[in-house]
Amino acid sequence: MSRLRSLGRGLVSGATRFAADARDLIFPPHCPGCGAARDPRSAGELCDPCRRDLPLPEAWLCPGCGIAGTGGAGAFCPGCRGRCAPDAVIHAAAYAGTARELVRRFKYRADFTAGRLLGRLLAERVAAALPGGVDLLVPVPLHRRRLGARGFNQAALIARDVGRRLVTRVDLAALARGRDTRTLAGLHPEERASELAGAFAARRPERIAGLRVLVCDDVLTTGTTAEGCCRALKDAGAVWAGIAVAARVLLPLAHRERHAALPEDA
Ligand SMILES: [Zn+2]
Ligand SMILES: [Zn+2]
Q1: What domains appear along the chain, each with residue ranges and CATH number?
Q2: What are the pLDDT digits (tens) for 9-23?
Q3: pTM for the whole thing?
């Protein structure tokens, strides 16, 4: 029985790999930003107009208020430190221009060339922001229903890419998502934010305790998901918990509550 089950698992992972290869075939060498055909030698690289339109992260500003300098990328200023669960919020690009196109192509069209570029940009940014590295990378878990509809968790693919490039361990199943947060749409923004923040939990706290853990995701909008994941990791005993996203919608902390009704990680 267990042999049958493991055979079944092998077939499933083989089928997933095949599906990924087939999807890569649908997208011959192209610019992952706009889809324009490219020479195979520059496969996976942005064309010149897309490169010019890639918004770089703002330099060394506090991710909470977006105003104060902190001396370190992703670190909070003294005024914001301690107000939120994450110890750092690192982003590779602002969610605009080419970065937004890359996220859309990756997520909604399964363009894995765009996903790999996002992973590479984020790995470079994390390496610069956290020269000491972290012990573990974990993706924001996708709700089962959405995973079924999309076929892949974009956060897991980004975490795997960052882990491979930075030679850091990745635990794809470290965090669990309790409920489908789409059902919270009718709630007051503040209720919704606190429900969302409580929607995550560490599956095996003993595997998190004492570690420096970096959560990976594609987009950060209001920060509620980041808050929930980092809080769950700290409840499990993580000594440090930060979040790294490929693209960030730039909203100062003071505006975040007002924008709590924005779609988070749709
Ligand atoms: Zn392009
Ligand atoms: Zn600040």
Answers
A1: 56-258 (3.40.50.2020)
A2: 444 444 455 554 555
A3: 0.80
